[in-house]
Amino acid sequence: MTVLQNRKIRVFVVAVVTALISYGGHGIMSSSAYVFEAPALGLFYVKSTYHLEMNEYFNEKIALLVETPLEDPNQLPPTGEDVCGEKNVSTYCVSMGAVDRYEKYMDALDNIEGLPILESDIPLLIPVIAGGELNLGEMFGVTSARSAAIAQEKMEAPRLLDMVIAAYNELRLAYPMHEKYDDLIVTLTKYREALSDVRAKTERLRTKFVDTTSASCK
After folding, report:
1. What is the mean pLDDT of residues 140-164?
2. How far apart are CA 194 and CA 62, in angstroms?
3. Between 201 and 127, where is the model more confident?
4. Measured between alpha carbons, how far is 198 from 122 in angstroms, rounded to an integer?
5. 10 within 8 A of 4, measured Cβ to Cβ
6. What is the pLDDT of residue 179?
7. What are the Cα distances from residue 88, in Å, to 55, 94, 166?
């Protein structure tokens, strides 16, 4: 029986590789900017962690956008040779941070294809394969399924990124108008209350002048 056919040997190799990266090669993992940059942990770990991290990134930027005053320089992209700061909420800077994550994700997907398939990924790739040893045909099937899943993710990820950046940009453009509308509502409410007060005073004065005429003002 070949090494490819022996699931136990293959899983042992994966475990050794994972252990080397997690412990012996801890410096490699810790030097990564993002948690999902861990191809040895498998396709579905990398995929789910990337989407979770990207979601948290945009949630943080949206919360920061709401808290940042409209006149704050961080509302605008940097000029000249300035770089984007952590507090900058312009669409340009936020998209640059997202694109950096996306590019690292593409690199991670490329690296996954050169690694053994994790046993935990197999049921997610081909659910019909039962436990135990894989025959050669099943092994090729799993490998092909992982390649297809990676190719599909490479098609979907940029489309989703474009959508979320566009949505953030729309929010950023609409939010200042929302703020102005809030200010306008407050002003109109004060005007209405003042007008109501004047009307109440006018109604109290009206009875004093009914059927009253005068040739002079007193």
Report:
1. 92
2. 37
3. 127
4. 77
5. yes
6. 58
7. 18, 7, 17
- Tell me the whole-structure pTM to 2 decimals: 0.66
Q: Token match 């950046």: residue?
A: 165
Which residues touch 109 (CB under 8 Å, ≥6 apart)? 39, 43, 46, 150, 153, 154
Please give the full DSSP string across 89-107, using - where no structure is assigned: -SHHHHHHHHHHHHHHHHH
What letter would DSSP give residue 117?
Answer: P
**Contact 62/48 with Cβ under 8 angstroms?**
no
If 0-12 CB within 10 Å is exposed, 13-18 middle and 19+ buried, where does residue 156 land?
exposed
**What angle is formed at CA 170 by the lines to CA 101 and CA 157, rounded to 5 degrees?**
30
Q: Residue 16 has which token pair?
A: 């050794």
